[in-house]
Fold:
Amino acid sequence: MEEVVSLNKKKALPIIMVLVVMLSLALSGCTSSDNNASGSQGGSNGQTVIKFMHLWPEGSSNAQYTIVNEIIQDYEKQHPDIKIQTEILGNDQYREKLKVLASSNELPDVGMTWSDGFLKPYVEGQLFTPLDDVIDANLKDTFIPGVKESYAIDGKTYGMPLELNISYIFYNKELFKKYNLQVPKTYSEFKNIVKTLNDNKVIPAAVGNKEGWPGSFWFMYLVDRIGGPTILTDVIQGKRSFDDPAIVQAATEVQNLVDMNTFEKGNSGLSNDEAKGYFMNEQAAMFLTATWELPNYTTSPDVPQAFKDKIGYFKFPLYEGGKGTDINSYVGGPGVGLFVAENSEVKEQAKDFAAFLVKEWGNKSVTDAGVIPATKVDTAGKKLDPMYVEILKDLSSASNVTTYFDTQASPNVAELHHDLIAALFGKQITPQQFVQQTAAALAEESN
Amino acid sequence: MKAVMSNKSAIALYVLPALLLILIIIYIPLVLTGYYGMMDWKGFAPMKFIGLDNYNKLIHDSMFWKSTYHSVLLGICSTLSLLIYLAVSMVLASRIKGANLFRKIYLIPMLLSSVAIAQLWSKIYDPSNGMINHLLTSMGVQNPPLWLSDPNIVLFAIFVPIVWQYAGFYIIIYYAALKNVPEEVIEAATIDGATPWQVASRIKLPLIAPVFKVTIILALVGSLKYFDLIFVMTGGGPNHASEVMASYMYGEAFSKYNFGYGSAIGFALLLICLLMTWLIRKLTTSGEDVQY
Structure:
């Protein structure tokens, strides 16, 4: 009997411990859900809670994460009665979660959105609230012209832009020097560079087409240089057809580049990050991407300075005989912007916080993160990376920024475009098929 | 106990909680999916009832049939790979040295999540830096296959990690079934002069036939709704070359905001899975199961 009791005691300890752990887990679960439940109506000290969801996690977007945190702290200091409750997700998870929250009508009070085609279904579903009043009151004339308009539908603005991106070909200066290459001004010079790099067994350019959009950068620039800067926007607005000879020619040029072995093999199965690896490992000499990559070449502490020093950039070369004769015409577009939920219970406070964030973001993102904000910045007296200053200068002398075709198009057409770009790079379809299938989808849409 | 089991209201009381849970969690959403399939719906914003238009569109949607074909192809391959698993577990179940170690080795992929497996194999398949192509080029192959971006290969390239992933699961099932075959029966047969091959095909196989039937259904239906690994590795690409029904459904519902149409695909997927299960049961219930 004695033995049995002692055995039970021995067994009892782990069981009790498990019970304690489970109980404490259950309790902590309860308390946190309590917090959520009190949510918008008011926090524990009678504070108003604004729920804010953003997509810059501490790990992968450290610079942005820190800035946002600082801004939130500043705001809470200035408004003691307000508590900002954040939820942070990575880019892809953010997109998924936003859709799920939208379908159950539980959007956060303030969140991030993309422009044009992404925004439209949400506005039509009356999930976002117009922000013109708060923009007029706080942010008049602070945005770079044209950026805010990308968030407008029927004359009302539903998002406050945070970022602006334009695309360049970034290149490895050391590799260029090694093979005696000059930055190309024209397309034939560019082709010669591709040829030389190929002869020396260096991958000329990295591109990842699993999701399609990185390859679309090459296509869009070729359309811009061959058919002129307005052609893709005209197509979206129904003024021109997608089967325009200039677009066919651009698609043909894409396949010519593929035939010349411009890109790493198997790119239609690689994600943008995987392809980026080829450039960051110096296996590929060039990488056509947007300025959101700038921190990797300027401020990011995770990238060795030796690599940063090797990276330069140039503008997409001009196509001989093309209609796009200005090298200062860019493909780019607004990145994320802030929305305020239409059915938010603290709409006015949420709007005010969003405006504050956009304004502060404009000042801090330049010096601390090295990304380009959608608001005008005064760079005087700030210590900035030379490449960054150069790009800001480019931006002010830009003759045109064509918003990414897939951003402008509806989600349906954008998805099709991504599929078809992958197929075009993989030579699964001809340029004619590429153009016809997109034109058909656009025509169906306009009915 | 007997008194409780003969009391009808007591039975109802015991069955009710589980029944309610299953109704709420499984059957009601199933019916709702079929219902949403009749809507023109973005996932948010008001729905519009459009009757059977989505289902009608589905029947004429070549991309849907292409993804169905890929799913069925995957199902057939998975079913065939059961034979490999069976052979392996036969060897493991007969007392060979190190069987325990091998069993564990086969089981390990089961412990990894599909996403981790997908990441792992994406690296292995990387066209220039991946392990396989490194090996091939070092062996003198000039143009090694571009596993995940060649539309003719991609489905089979994806199939390899799937075989690898599920090996442990099926081997454990077969191993357990084989261990249940009474030792005496096999001994008696061996004494009567049966060769190992005869023991396997005439005694062991018939005795584990019911288990084999169950695994066929599991493999086939599992492949039809297969999603995670493919979604992470290729996203159904390039240009839908590895699109399966579930990834097509996801793409329509979440990437293109056609929730109504996505629901219709989901409902069709359910019907196809039911049909397949029924078909296999019809085909495999020939005669009585062998008993010992």
About this structure: The mean pLDDT of chain B is 89.
